[in-house]
Write a structure and sequence with these properties.
By secondary structure, this protein is of the alpha+beta class. The protein is 25% helix and 25% strand. The strands form seven sheets. The protein has a seven-stranded mixed β-sheet, sandwiched between helices. Strand 23 and strand 24 form a beta hairpin. 58% of the residues are buried. The mean pLDDT is 97.
Length: 734
């Protein structure tokens, strides 16, 4: 099925199941501990051995010698895999560095060996006996030092590296009011609950990986390419994933080494990347240096806006596209964006929740706050004045499919009590606390991906959905079940959803905020095909048949789905593909974040008092799970603002705070109150679901609202994230 014209009235619009706050279908399995995760597949591989990864102790160089004798003689050891005995391995298209290093070493903690033993403890203890001598080479580990060496990266997923409209330099020079500031964001870790983990088993030349992976079809291709085997011989199974945030978009070392280990010892092997290894072995969000220049008239109307971004990655890697939102968010006839990529020998930088916008808005939305103050305009009003209903780079010929940023601003401000904010900083006291409010716009592009599904009706009238879509804690099981129930007119309890298996039709997968909208659209396509089959069996015209209460009706006649299905059942399979609507119309999700903070007058301790937000993201498929997504993303935004930072040891090229004890993330007590409002919206140019993504929107701008609230409370403007106590105290003393 192809979606290339705006959606008209369709079965989803009935809203009998879709759009309601149903409980999660996977909830009972998770809270009772019966949901099988990748490392726990005792049912599938009861005799699995255990693998422990030995990572590189240097960031760049070569293996001079590797002595395995002590490890091989250790109790319970079954085998050791290294580059010397792994056979020929390719590098996947989505991996910047090789998943198994040697003899060349590309980054700190790169996997160099897998020790396999009969127990986890034996594998771990033996891994410590592996002795490696290195030839160390000089590396580049400091983004600030390499900034001027940054090159123009090739066009990629986010579009061209640079854009230009009009005469930015001339317009900025003439502007009545100017903002010209630099902002920095640190490297960040995904810090999901479940580590990267895989259980691998071979059956002849066929490999099964029970793994924690967000993109099943991508993963199959990457494993097949790396091992040099046909895709048909690889099966990936990921029915439950304990969080990913982009860290599990691509196959990592656990999957490859589990496969190699299982082949080496002739039995299933399970591998989990240990928590202290994850930040340096896998991927992270890269640090950025950003310069933002905005020129406006005295009323705050923007005429010139420029955003330059520097980030770094391993050779062959990509940039952090932090200027993407600046291309679309505000008006301005003269504009420019630029990305530069420095070569760094740190671990691979890659996607983390809302790559680009999440860190870009940490800078842009503080700059907008600075512009508001310089113009003497309320920060909410400034953003409303600079709203634009078309792509400001392309012009009026490319309007937004829907854009309710202004509605989000107004409704969110009213709900939060923004009118009580004092414009002059440092005016509100509550005991020993200075209190301030901040606002920031939320923006995340709306992307859609081809997605397929198979759907059937059985002899009991039950509906079964099969798709390789994953649920990373987002609620995929539930919204896919709701879509099937809506389309076929059955109760949600009659739907069984099966996910995360490469034997099922390929879906969009979970990433980029495209998963919910795209995967449910794929189920919509399959359900339309099934409706046509059932209508044909019933002898009814497919375009006039009604599906409700487990029946198919036409005029005064009806038949049960169970009867039409018969003993064999009726199945249909289809996918949703997309035309050029996303080129003809700019598509994005919008919101407004509001935050109130308290700052201790003596210690500079920063406490979030409350947060609120209003968001427009098309049809909200399930308000309960969508709200959970948004408050989780807002929480990550607080982490980015106040505490999260992978600290680089620029002498040795590693992230030094590489565990959950020293990489600090927010907890419940850090944010006592969060409020979420969804603005009614249907986007008929996004998909037949008329929905958009919502999973990443909530992080975009949240941290900037915190930063702006701190300024309103204290009068101190910090531009170097995270905004920690020491930085605030230093600024107070200056």
């Amino acid at each position: 099925m192809k979606f290339d014209t705006p959606a008209g009235i369709n079965p989803i619009d009935k809203g009998r199941v879709i759009g309601l706050p149903h409980d999660r279908l996977d909830g009972p399995a998770k809270v009772t501990g019966s949901a099988p995760y990748a490392y726990e597949r005792h049912d599938a591989a009861p005799n699995a051995a255990y693998g422990w990864i030995v990572g590189s102790a240097i960031a760049k160089g070569k293996i001079a010698a590797m002595d395995l004798r002590a490890a091989e003689a250790a109790p319970g050891v079954l085998g050791i895999v290294t580059h010397a005995n792994a056979g020929k391995l390719a590098k996947g298209n989505n991996n910047t560095a090789h998943l198994l290093g040697g003899p060349d070493i590309e980054h700190y903690e790169q996997a160099l060996a897998l020790v396999i033993a009969d127990t986890l403890e034996n594998a771990r203890d033996a891994a410590r006996l592996v002795h490696i001598d290195y030839t160390v080479q000089d590396g580049k580990f400091d983004l600030a030092a390499e900034r001027l060496n940054g090159a123009i990266p090739p066009s990629g997923f986010g579009g061209p590296a640079d854009t230009k409209v009009g005469d930015f330099d001339g317009a900025f020079a003439k502007a009545a009011v100017k903002v010209d500031q630099n902002y920095t964001t640190p490297d960040q870790s995904h810090a999901m609950m479940e580590p990267h983990a895989t259980t691998a088993a071979w059956n002849g030349d066929r490999l099964t990986l029970w793994t924690s992976n967000q993109m099943i079809a991508w993963g199959v291709g990457e494993v097949a390419k790396t091992l040099g085997i046909p895709k048909a011989n690889v099966r990936l199974v990921s029915p439950y994933i304990g969080g990913g945030f982009g860290a599990k978009l691509f196959v990592r070392a656990d999957a490859l080494l589990a496969a190699l280990g299982a082949k080496a010892v002739g039995r299933p092997v399970k591998v989990a990347i240990a928590r202290p290894q994850i930040p340096n072995n896998t991927t992270h969000r890269p640090a950025t240096i950003q310069r933002i220049r905005i020129g406006a008239d005295k009323d705050g109307i923007i005429d010139a806006i420029g955003h330059e971004v520097w980030s770094g990655d391993l050779p062959g890697g990509g940039p952090e596209t932090a200027a993407m939102q600046t291309r679309l968010l505000y008006r301005g006839g003269n504009r420019m964006t630029a990305h530069r990529l420095a070569t760094l020998d740190l671990p691979e930088g890659n996607a983390m929740r809302a790559p680009g916008e999440a860190v870009g808005l940490l800078a842009l939305e503080v700059a907008m706050d600075e512009l508001a103050e310089a113009c003497g305009v309320d920060p909410v009003e400034l953003r409303i004045r600079n709203d634009v209903q078309y792509d400001p780079e392309a012009g009026t010929q490319r309007p937004f499919s829907s854009r309710k940023m202004v509605e989000c601003m107004r409704a969110g401000a009213d709900r939060f009590g923004w009118n009580k904010r004092k414009a002059k900083p440092g005016q509100v006291r509550d005991g020993r606390w200075l209190v301030g409010m901040g606002v920031a716009t939320a923006f995340r592009n709306n992307m859609v991906m081809k997605s397929g599904a198979r759907i059937g009706v059985n002899a009991q009238g039950g509906v079964i959905v099969e798709t390789d879509m994953t649920d990373i804690g987002t609620g995929s099981y539930t919204i896919i079940g709701q879509t099937a129930a809506e389309m076929l007119g059955v109760d949600l309890k009659q739907v069984v959803v099966k996910l995360g298996d490469s034997r099922f039709p390929a879906s969009a997968g979970s990433g980029g905020q495209w998963g919910a909208n795209s995967s449910t659209a794929g189920v919509y396509a399959a359900a339309m095909a099934l409706r046509a089959k059932l209508a044909e069996k019933a002898g009814y015209p497919a375009d006039q048949a009604q599906f409700e209460d487990g029946l198919i009706r036409h005029e005064n006649k009806s038949q049960t789905l169970a009867a039409l299905a018969g003993r064999e059942g009726v199945w249909a399979e289809d996918s949703m593909d997309y035309g050029d609507l996303d080129k003809r119309f700019a598509q994005a999700t919008f919101g407004a974040h509001f935050c109130e903070v308290g700052v201790d007058i003596d210690t500079a301790e920063i406490r979030i008092r409350r947060m609120g937000g209003a968001f427009a993201a098309g049809r909200i498929l399930n308000p309960k799970s969508a709200r959970s997504q948004v408050i989780g993303a807002m929480t990550m935004g607080v982490g980015a603002a106040l505490m999260e930072s992978l600290d680089v040891d620029t002498r040795f090229g590693l992230f030094i705070n590489h565990d959950m004890a020293e990489y600090v993330v927010p907890v419940h007590a850090d944010i006592p109150e969060q409020d979420v409002l969804f603005i009614d919206e249907l986007d008929d140019k996004s998909s037949p679901m008329k929905a958009k993504g919502v999973g990443e929107l909530g992080i975009c701008g949240a941290g900037a609202a915190v930063a702006n609230a701190i300024y309103n409370a204290t009068g101190i403007r910090l531009r170097d994230y995270p905004l920690t106590i020491d930085k605030l105290l230093k600024a107070q003393a200056a």
